[in-house]
Amino acid sequence: MATEEKKHFADKHTGEKPDGKIKDKIIEHSKNREIPCAVVFNIARQLEKPAGMVGKNVDLMNFRLTKCQLGLFGYKPEKKIVKPHDHEWGELKDAVKSQSLDGKLPCKEAWDIAAQFKVRKMEISGLCEFMGIKIKPCQLGAF
What we know:
Elements: H1 20-29, E1 34-36, H2 37-47, H3 51-60, E2 64-66, H4 90-99, E3 104-105, H5 107-117, H6 121-131, E4 134-135
Parallel strand pairs: 1-2, 3-4
Helix pairs in contact: 1-2, 2-3, 4-5, 5-6
């Protein structure tokens, strides 16, 4: 059985320290040094802070983000649960194409498209997988 190398997420943020209030909320809502994407967004809303700031604090604490709402990371054992799938909805494909640049669609744009078309976020990420479009950057700074 291979052992996974321990990641040092804080290395992305040289010399920075976690914010006390954010750190406390992360500790309160995490389990085994892991915290789901949706919970991070809830903490951001509660504290009226940008989600990216809370995500950065998760990194600074070397906690792991889990259960990406787009299905791209943080699931066990597969890590990624989104599956490529096509849609008959031309307008949805057009929206994804129009918001993509250089084969990438920002996570925020994926969420906005899902809200606009009233579909699940994983519908958008599945379509991106099918179309060969990477979702990047993550709103929380995971990628």
